[in-house]
Amino acid sequence: MTVPVLVSGSIIPGVPELQMSKVIAGGGAGTWLTVGYFLFLIVGVCVVFLCGAAYCLIGQALGHDVYSGKLAGAQLVMMEAGALVALGLLYYAGFVAGRMFIEKIPAEQVHPFLANFIDPIGVFIAIGLLGALIGGVNYVLTLTRGRQITSTSS
């Protein structure tokens, strides 16, 4: 999927050339595109997978289910949604701003365009971090629940 997008010409007849490689190589605003793409692969795919795998492995190792399946679901959904939207916005803003620079639009016009994305990206990063915090609480409660000492009174 990445290779056809990065080539210099369009692979779809009738669709104009995206010049993706020029946007990335141009640096500056185009770096937002690169960072958004690679961070989504790291956070949106790998980290969420590892969190889900941790729930599975912790449950098998302790011999009981996680403390709360709802908290686990909330963690995974909030982390994935936060990463997807925040990094998608980062990707989109970097691509459009990079194209603006290629078209020789002055930086004074490109900067306000990028500034519009800062707050929404921050909100969705906060949603993802809240999901991670929920997951951390759920992991701790799951691990400490297995260590509880039960007293038997006769």
Q: What report would you give on this structure?
A:
With 154 residues, the chain is mostly helical. The protein has a domain at 42-145. Helices cover 75% and strands 0% of the residues. It is built from 6 helices and no strands. Helix 3 (30-62) runs antiparallel to helix 4 (69-102), helix 3 packs parallel to helix 6 and helix 4 packs antiparallel against helix 5 (107-115). The longest helix has 34 residues, at 69-102. The protein is elongated. The termini are far apart. The relative contact order is 0.15.
The count of strands amounts to 0
Helix content: over 70%
Tally of helical runs: 6
Task: Please trace the helix and strand order, writing H or E for each element.
Answer: HHHHHH
Low-confidence stretches: 1-10, 148-154
State the major sheet. Answer: none
What would you report as the Rg, rounded to the nearest angstrom? 22 Å
Distance between the termini: 67 Å
- What's the mean pLDDT score? 80
| Overall 3D shape | elongated
Percent strand: under 5%
Structural class: mainly alpha
